[in-house]
User: What shape does this take?
Amino acid sequence: MPVPGPGYSITVRVEAPPSASAAGDLTGAIGRVGGVITAFDVVESHADRIVVDISCNAVSANHAKDITDALEALPGVAVRKVSDRTFLIHLGGKIEVNSKVALRNRDDLSRAYTPGVARVCEAIAANPEDARRLTIKRNTVAVVTDGSAVLGLGNLGPAAALPVMEGKAALFKKFAGVDAWPVCLDTQDTEEIIRAVELIAPVYGGINLEDIAAPRCFEIEARLREKLDIPVFHDDQHGTAIVVVGALRNALRVVDKQIEDCKIVVCGVGAAGSAIIRLLLHKNPGDVIAVDVNGIVHQGRDDLDDNLRSIADTTNREGMTGRLHDALVGADVFIGVSAPNLFGAEQVATMADRAVVFALANPDPEVDPMEAQKHAAVVATGRSDYPNQINNVLAFPGVFRGLLDAQARGISDAMLLAAADAVADVVDGDRLNPSFIVPSVFDPAVATAVADAVRKAAHA
Ligand SMILES: NC(=O)c1ccc[n+]([C@@H]2O[C@H](COP(=O)([O-])OP(=O)(O)OC[C@H]3O[C@@H](n4cnc5c(N)ncnc54)[C@H](O)[C@@H]3O)[C@@H](O)[C@H]2O)c1
Assistant: This one.
């Protein structure tokens, strides 16, 4: 059941009679239709009327409309203007470039730009490695997308992907001091994407691929890793895998199970699911059963592409066949990165005792977390309105901080595993419980711990 949140937040400017009951009438009308008021400001006051800005959270765009209709229906009240606060913070974009050097006079100019800069250019031409010391390459990451899998919204194209990429860049800066810049490519051709990234690579210390649809994302990442001398990381794959593997380590500590004894069902074998399975396999789980839209992945299926074939070859030791509901029977762990509302409490009841359920499909999970809690011992989702939010922001800022500090030329599974352990270890034994298996995304210790772990693994 969705609850009003800041994602649908509006500010309504209303004109109302200056009566003693005006504030109560306005807030009461909003409350009756389920809006949650976050601010109430009188912006004008006259003998015959007041003008008020009321900010409130809604569930959806339709709900926001219900709220303004409820205000308009009050006697003597007129709605002057409705502002969508989410759109307001996007006006003109969310990031900008700032100069790190002062440009006050000719002296400054001569060193930051010509003629002085020429000697720095020559130094880099003579020794290209100096680019990591003398340019933004030291601290800059390209956030590259083709707009083919934007959030859960699908193929929206490069321009519509830009608000997400800007947000990503803002998070990089906020959580790890990394300068990231959106690169939204106007192509969805694998060869063109690879070539474009290759061509822009000299500027960057790392490439963060983002919202590129599976299975194309696998080839693009693999080939760029071969070609480039900087790390290439697809956040939808590895950022998710790091946080899931870290969270699972803590969840299994809560339920007192060893991963070697666990049957783990991973539902969704796209970008996120494939990477989760590959990282999990390093931890020697009892078995992993992968399930996609066509059922359990096994070697006998005749619809396997290269990615599914490699998953089939490394999972499902007993050659299980069937659907998701069959896979769940007796499973210790469910990890869902697939689609909404696939099962209910009755299927969770068929899992092993002290089951762990990570239902991560966004915005609506594979199973309602309230239903899952009836039988599972630990439940996590991707949502911010439930405990145990599995969110990539726990991983990617620290991962790139560590990679850039190490001047890493590539990224290995050992680094990803070190990052996963670091995320898990931020939750110390005293704080660990079924509702707290991952740290808060705002815990400043997370990015530092992940960066340290990645840097050490890079130097190992
Ligand atoms: N919370 C998080 O941190 C997090 C991170 C990554 C992805 N996700 C969510 O996971 C989901 C998948 O993301 P992705 O990027 O891997 O997508 P994707 O399109 O690459 O893969 C989707 C996979 O789900 C499978 N699937 C679809 N419908 C299914 C069904 N009815 N039953 C079983 N399997 C089904 C598909 O076959 C495919 O294997 C999305 O909802 C995404 O928002 C959440």
About this structure: The radius of gyration is 25 Å. The pocket of nicotinamide-adenine-dinucleotide is lined by residues 152, 214, 236, 240, 267-273, 291-293, 324, 337-339, 342, 360-362, 382, 390-392 (CB under 6 Å). Residues 5-88 form a domain with the Alpha-Beta Plaits fold (CATH 3.30.70.260).
